């Protein structure tokens, strides 16, 4: 039977006009072809790209070693100090490389490292694109699944494990994303183009170190710009000073500082309001309407069952009416009236003559709890109805979705992973960078030449 054969040859031109030819692959097919044999197969593509990589990388390293290097301080040519071996881990396989070493210039004096590599491979010699792809998908899917997917599609060296994916992702968080954020503190982002809405919420992550408590708290939130652009952030709640700084830095990355007109919404947690007072003291503060409404609903449930099945049942109407009027006043921004109503209801439920009424104690407790909650958040009670008519936010549901996407779904429910305060922050940083679509920029800053933003070298591909 007739066979079709393709030999894939690499023509390298390492010096102008001097070419060398290497066969990278030989692909064969029978003429009587089935659908599964039509075109290039994944295993062939993997072998082909790995063979190309194995040719390119050593040639580049050899050429780099031949480049003369001069001292940045005095211009003197640096002397060679042999080579060392390393394994370059790339999207297209592991490639052994010889890295040229150079003596440090004598003008740098004593106390400096004695030699320096011609190319800094970092601690683990992982190609930036491999680190990027790994971290990007590890932020969205379980580590084991990412390992399996990458191994299936790419000619990666060795078996990929969930732990490799996890460790690489944490490194990206610490060395690429956090470094990028630290740089941004010195070069602030463009100021927000108008008033912003900031939502804050807390969530819990399971702790792998039992001694420090079963869970620890992560604060997550979102900044929504006047033009609708969203910027998510998340940090662990540590000491008060560190937490305040983390919040300030998260806002700075979105171009927000103490002078930016801002509205801050949260569920009434005292620690979250403390952050707001320290970082955005001039902001308009709004207590999330639904958190207040849920407490009203709990009190109403107690009111409805008041004296159930006894001659006291009509008392329920009195309690329900009192609560509904209080809620109506709060909704329309009439807090003093709401407070009077709730206080009166509390006194009523505490009357000696009603002491024997079934469920009266529970009602009194819930109304007192509601009143206390509203009093603690008095400064953040706003005319909710009017705000809503004007299209201004009154609820933190937009923040809770951020908490869900950053913490809960990924870190507690689906993954069943345990974290420590130290390891969770780099992961949170990668995850928020992916959700904010800033991970690629962070890599660009860390590695010059990484995925050029205006790449016009592939006109045919772009047009296809
Ligand atoms: Zn020098």
Describe this protein's structure.
There is one protein chain. With 464 residues, the protein is α+β, with helices and mostly antiparallel strands. Helices cover 46% and strands 19% of the residues. The protein is built from 15 helices and ten strands. The strands form three sheets. Strands 8-7-6-9-10 form a five-stranded mixed β-sheet, with helices on both faces. Strands 3-4-5 form a three-stranded antiparallel β-sheet, sandwiched between helices. Strands 1-2 form a two-stranded antiparallel ribbon. The radius of gyration is 31 Å and the shape is elongated. The two termini are 36 Å apart. 30% of the residues are buried. Bound molecules: zinc ion. Zinc ion (ZN) binds at residues 71, 73-74, 76, 105, 107.
């Amino acid at each position: 039977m007739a066979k079709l054969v393709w030999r894939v040859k690499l023509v390298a031109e390492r010096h102008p006009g001097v070419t060398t030819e290497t066969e990278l692959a030989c692909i064969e097919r029978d003429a009587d072809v089935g659908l599964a044999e039509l075109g290039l197969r994944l295993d062939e593509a993997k072998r082909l790209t790995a063979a190309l990589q194995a040719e390119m990388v050593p040639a580049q390293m050899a050429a780099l070693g031949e480049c003369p290097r001069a001292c940045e301080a005095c211009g003197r040519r640096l002397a060679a100090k042999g080579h060392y071996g390393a394994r370059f881990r790339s999207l297209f396989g592991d490639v052994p490389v010889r890295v040229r070493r150079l003596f440090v210039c004598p003008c740098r004096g004593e106390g400096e490292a004695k030699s320096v590599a011609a190319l800094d491979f970092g601690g683990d010699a992982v190609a930036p694109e491999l680190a990027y792809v790994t971290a990007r998908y590890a932020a969205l899917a379980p580590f084991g699944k990412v390992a399996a997917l990458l191994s299936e599609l790419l000619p990666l060296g060795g078996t990929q494990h969930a732990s490799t994916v996890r460790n690489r992702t944490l490194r990206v968080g610490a060395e690429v994303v956090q470094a990028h954020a630290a740089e941004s503190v010195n070069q602030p982002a463009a100021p927000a183009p108008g008033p912003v809405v900031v939502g804050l919420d807390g969530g819990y992550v399971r702790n792998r170190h039992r001694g420090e408590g079963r869970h620890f708290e992560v604060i997550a939130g979102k900044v929504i710009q006047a033009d609708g652009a969203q910027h998510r952030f998340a940090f662990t709640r540590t000491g008060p000073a560190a937490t305040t700084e983390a919040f300030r830095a998260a806002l700075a990355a979105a171009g927000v500082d103490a002078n930016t007109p801002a509205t801050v919404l949260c569920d009434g947690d005292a620690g979250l309001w403390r952050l707001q007072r320290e970082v955005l003291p001039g902001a308009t503060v709004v207590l999330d309407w639904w958190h207040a409404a849920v407490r009203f609903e709990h009190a109403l449930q107690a009111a409805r069952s008041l004296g159930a099945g006894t001659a006291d049942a009509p008392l329920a109407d009195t309690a329900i009416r009192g609560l509904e009027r209080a809620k109506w006043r709060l909704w329309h921004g009439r807090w003093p009236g709401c407070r009077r109503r709730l206080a009166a209801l509390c006194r009523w439920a505490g009357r000696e003559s009603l002491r024997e009424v079934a469920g009266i104690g529970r009602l009194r407790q819930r109304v007192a709890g509601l009143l206390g909650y509203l009093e603690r958040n008095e400064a953040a009670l706003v005319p909710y109805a009017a705000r809503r008519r004007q299209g201004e936010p009154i609820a933190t549901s937009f923040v809770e979705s951020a908490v869900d996407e950053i913490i809960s779904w990924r870190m507690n429910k689906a993954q069943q992973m345990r974290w420590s305060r130290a390891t969770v922050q780099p992961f949170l940083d990668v995850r928020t960078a992916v959700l904010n679509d800033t991970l690629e920029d962070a890599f660009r800053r860390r590695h010059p030449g990484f995925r050029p933003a205006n790449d016009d070298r592939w006109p045919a591909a772009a047009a296809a």
